[in-house]
Amino acid sequence: MASRQFTKALRSNVARQLAAPTIQRRTFTAALGGIRAGVVPAARAAVAGPAQQIRGVKTIDFAGTKEQVYEREDWPREKLLEYFKNDTLALIGYGSQGHGQGLNLRDNGLNVIVGVRKDGASWKEAVQDGWIPGTNLFDVNEAISKGTIIMNLLSDAAQSETWPAIKPQLTKGKTLYFSHGFSPVFKDLTKVDVPSDVDVILVAPKGSGRTVRSLFREGRGINSSIAVYQDVTGKAEEKAIAMGVAVGSGYLYKTTFEKEVYSDLYGERGCLMGGIHGMFLAQYEVLRERGHSPSEAFNETVEEATQSLYPLIGSHGMDWMYAACSTTARRGAIDWSSRFKDTLKPVFNDLYDAVKDGRETQRSLDYNSQPDYREKYEKEMQEIRDLEIWRAGKAVRGLRPENQK
Ligand SMILES: NC(=O)c1ccc[n+]([C@@H]2O[C@H](COP(=O)([O-])OP(=O)(O)OC[C@H]3O[C@@H](n4cnc5c(N)ncnc54)[C@H](OP(=O)(O)O)[C@@H]3O)[C@@H](O)[C@H]2O)c1
Questions:
Q1: In angstroms, what is the span from residue 156 Cα to ligand 1's centroid?
Q2: Interhelix angle for 388-398 vs 274-289, to 10°?
Q3: CATH top class, domain 69-255
């Protein structure tokens, strides 16, 4: 059990910091160093060294490894408008990313059009968001024919399914843009073999499209990976950076298509979603089997994690969170973390193998290509909603002041 009073005090401090508007034109070092001086200097030094230069690409020392980072400050709006003045950005698909990236591009004043199926849910959503049929909203083929930069933001399974129709329209001089390396990297499975005479670039926001939009509206920007798969013009990397800024990124981290797709599929199955859900369930079930009430099991598994401790890790790092807890909590957590790590590492290695050898890609293609995949997914979500842990969670959340009438 963590030290409640200290945690409570920090929680409100962190909440204030999280709620505070970020200064838009801050420097990268300022952003990384935005913690109270002297509190966790060792952790701060280990996370990132100073930017090596003021403008252009920055080489940043991430805990001893130097990496290149690009930032939005080098691409003010006027420069973006000039850079893309002869381009039509055809954004194909209007799911989470299409929505976020498309609206940000539109607000940035760029010439962006949306292409989706006329009978689909996305068409209706695009109309609701102010895209106008025949003006900047078209069916997929018409949008591609008008575009110079084709942003393929269909679902990954749909990218594979529609490729035979899309490929012939990607004529010389166009640029093909992805937000995930999935389709070209696993081309043996997806059949997405890109034409040899187009630039192929990637901007992969590290978060949901909803966050791409909300951070942009707050005057901030999401972190994104950028990569080049094929550089025909010699300008592909620059184009990827400019596109990254245009869709609403704050900082852009250079990677490869392969590294992006491996790390992304691995992470979402692991600590980001699947792994953490599995761990919540395991801890909750043991507490319930050992006679604890649903509220106690939920509070000790999820509520304290998400409302108190995880935000501390996010704001200031793991050592800060440890420091915010009791000596009893710290001792046990330090001892048990290595046992969990040793137990889970083989599972993570299995997962990485399944990602790299394409099994996870094949599973996703098979499942998400089924005509009734939405209904099947909804059934699985209902099963999750019906689990006692999440029903208990709903009741616990209902007690929060903001959820009480
Ligand atoms: N979501 C994220 O958090 C996230 C984050 C980073 C990167 N990405 C990547 O961004 C890309 C887009 O992902 P997303 O989550 O935004 O979208 P998504 O929900 O996976 O895909 C939705 C879009 O695909 C269209 N679609 C599905 N099947 C189709 C078909 N057979 N023909 C034509 N259109 C079809 C849907 O149109 P209808 O409404 O007409 O069905 C909808 O516009 C993916 O490569 C994904 O990996 C996603």
A1: 7
A2: 90
A3: alpha beta
